[in-house]
Amino acid sequence: MEGMNEKFTITVEEKGLVILGGDGSRMQFTAVEALMLLDILKDEEQRLRKMAQDASPISMEISV
To answer: Which whole number is the average pLDDT over 45-55?
Structure first.
């Protein structure tokens, strides 16, 4: 995973949430869909943190 650098932009717009990938990809969510996604991510936060930590080749802490 050397040199891995993922860039994206998250924007809250009038109709909901848009995620733009560095490669030009686009994901768009309505406000309701974005809130459902947020709820799922909150429930899975500890598991996702552990997965990210285990996948990292170096010791690091991810903070938001």
So the answer is: 90
Residue with tokens 């949430």: 17
- Rounded to two decimals, the pTM is 0.68
41 vs 10: CA distance, rounded Å: 15
With beta carbons less than 8 A apart as the criterion, state whether 9 and 20 touch. Answer: yes
Select from 47, 50, 58 the least CA-distant residue to 1.
58
| Dist. CA 45–CA 2, nearest whole Å | 25
- The residue ranges of every structural domain in the chain are 8-55
Residues 6+ positions from 33 with CB-CB distance below 8 Å? 16, 17
Contact predicate 34/17, CB 8 Å: yes
